[in-house]
Amino acid sequence: MKQVVSPTIQTIKMSSDKKPLNFYKIIVNGGLFLTALSLPLLDWRFYISGLEFNISDFLILLTAIVFLIYRLGQRFAGQGVEKWQWPLAKPMFCFLLVALLSSLFSPWRGESLKYFIRIILFVYLLYIVLPVNALEAWRDWRWPFYGTLIAGLGSGIVGIMSLFGQDWSNSFFRVQPIAIFGHWWMGSNHNLLAEFLVITNFFLLAWGYWQKDERWRRLTQVLFVFFSLITLLTFSRAAWLVIAVQLVGAWLLLTKPRKRVGWLLGGLLLILLSVPLWVKMGQLQEANFSSTANHILLTEIAWQSLQQRPIIGWGSGQFLTLVDHNLRFRAKYGDPIDSHGIIQKVMAENGSLGLVALVAVAVSLFILWGKAWQKYGRQNLWLGCLILGAGGGLLFQLFNTSYYKGKVWLPVALSLTAIKLLENETAKKR
N or C: where does the chain have the smaller number of CB atoms within 10 Å of the terminal CB? Predict the structure, then answer.
């Protein structure tokens, strides 16, 4: 995967903008860096006026306030202010409108509206709109990128550490989060670790493409393989599927046709070396039947809910309530849990209109990524890595519960911002 360093990569490493950062920009960039760094810390939570925040949500909210003050100050000072950009504006507006209407007509209107504003609208405005508008140059963009990358490497190290506290003869050993100072800062479920690593592994590969020294590029490729193995050792079914899709994507996007046979042979060798892991996965699935049955029942609840209110569903954030009212689930599994998959969640909460709007958002995003790759990707292979990482995080949410979390959407915003900056560079050269 050798690449000639392009002018764009040089621009990322050493921004051509020589103007010093002002105080507000340093605060905004630092806030986005800390937000990215704290993305895996989902269980570092606290409450403000009855609203729950994890640490990354709190940090990005403070960052947004500073950025708005900065923009208002520019306007009052008569300085030029760039027009606000609204990524995926039309499909996202449709989805937000459906989510709002479903909340307004929900039997649990108050709670549903609160969820819509605090969770869904919050994620779009702060984790997508804010970064795309605040990161105006490559030197700004590097801050949250490196924060995300460091957070991913830290998560991988935590996963490695978890192996040393387990009995390897036990059929249930796996890479997973650990308690630090008596608290599960990253949560306790292995999927929470895996869903972030599938993103940051490819961000690491992107960083490698920026290096002029061939040895550094080779090192990052070795680290990529190592941390991908750590991700596989979570024995997350979703992670295995996502990694398979990502590797096929990398084979198609990041390699030249004449080199694909070599990659294919390497992939076959990897499959052979992974046979012990496949055996282990089979053992886990035999012992994990109740989890599968649990997910099937949640899907049945979602389908029944869609049939009862097929147009706009039961209201945003009400899947837990629907599960709580299901006697079969309560009798068999106890406390209600959220949908393990964004399709089932939107199906129940926002109805068929919500599903259509969600598909429109996904299709628009993948078309945008595809056009950007066709235009810029061949000279900037790192862009393909960003797209594969961010896309892998979204794909994971077909099977998990972090669909409205910053750890999924900030990487998407970083990919969109990188495309914006590439477009700005192209426009300047004309």
Answer: C
Q: Which of 371, 372, 369, 376 is nearest to 391 (CA)?
A: 369
Contact 186, 43 (CB under 8 A): yes
Beta carbons of 317 and 119 less than 8 angstroms apart:
yes
Q: Which of 135, 241, 250, 272 is nearest to 204 (CA)?
A: 250
Helices then strands, each counted (H, E), the chain: 19, 2
Residues 86 and 92: their CA atoms lie apart, in Å, by: 9
Within 10 angstroms of residue 265's Cβ, the number of other Cβ atoms is: 10
Alpha-carbon distances, residue 200 vs 140, 142, 190, 323, 366 (angstroms): 19, 14, 16, 33, 19
DSSP annotation of 335: S
Contact 239, 373 (CB under 8 A): no
Q: Is 164 exposed, middle or buried (0-12, 13-18, 19+ CB in 10 A)?
A: exposed
β pairing state of 45-48 and 51-54: antiparallel
Cα–Cα distances (Å) from 98 to 91, 110, 318, 424, in that order, read 11, 16, 14, 33
β-pair partners for 52: 47
pLDDT tens figures, 225-275 = 899 989 988 988 899 999 989 988 888 887 766 666 666 666 666 666 666
Q: Which tokens is 123 given?
A: 């994620």
Q: Do the beta carbons of residue 245 and residue 392 sit within 8 Å?
A: yes
Q: Is the Cα dihedral 201, 202, 203, 208 positive or negative? A: positive
What single-letter amino acid sits at 241?
Answer: L
For residue 240, CA distances in Å to 110, 171, 233 come to 39, 18, 9
Measured distance between the N- and C-terminal CA atoms of the chain, rounded to whole angstroms? 30
Which residue type does 286 have?
A: E
Handedness of CA 273, 278, 279, 281 (dihedral sign): positive
380: Cβ–Cβ under 8 A, 6 or more apart, which residues?
6, 8, 9, 209, 422
Cα→Cα distances 10→15, 138, 211, 230, 415, Å: 8, 10, 9, 31, 18
Please write the tens of the pLDDT for every residue from 35-61: 999 999 999 988 887 788 999 999 999
Q: Which residues contact 156 (CB under 8 A, 6 or more apart)?
A: 197, 200, 227, 230, 231
pLDDT digits (tens, 9 = 90+) for 323-360: 999 988 888 888 888 988 999 999 999 999 999 999 99
